[in-house]
Design the sequence.
């Protein structure tokens, strides 16, 4: 399914610096995941009339109804306190993700 492959690729992306290089030790939060799902859902609605999607019944299933998407959202929400704590520790040490 085209949408889900894009979704998985998006979730594995980490933050990048100004040169486009991946920053190690960075991650995305649950809000980013929710925004990505919403953006893909909108893309699905706007492009469902295209020929490459008309013959794909999977393209008519809302992403939020899929179990794997629910799992990603639950795991991200559960990991958020630890992610925020790590971010605060890094900030207190003077680490900057934007450099």
Sequence:
């Amino acid at each position: 399914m085209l949408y889900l492959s894009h979704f998985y690729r998006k979730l594995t992306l980490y933050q990048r610096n100004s040169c486009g290089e991946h920053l190690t030790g960075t991650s995305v939060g649950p809000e980013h995941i929710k925004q990505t799902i919403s953006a893909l859902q909108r893309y699905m609605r706007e492009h469902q009339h295209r020929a490459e999607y008309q013959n794909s019944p999977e393209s008519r299933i809302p992403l939020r109804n899929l179990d794997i998407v629910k799992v990603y959202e639950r795991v991200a929400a559960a990991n958020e306190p630890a992610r925020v704590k790590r971010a605060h520790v890094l900030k207190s040490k003077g680490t900057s993700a934007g450099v």
Summary: The chain has a mean pLDDT of 76.
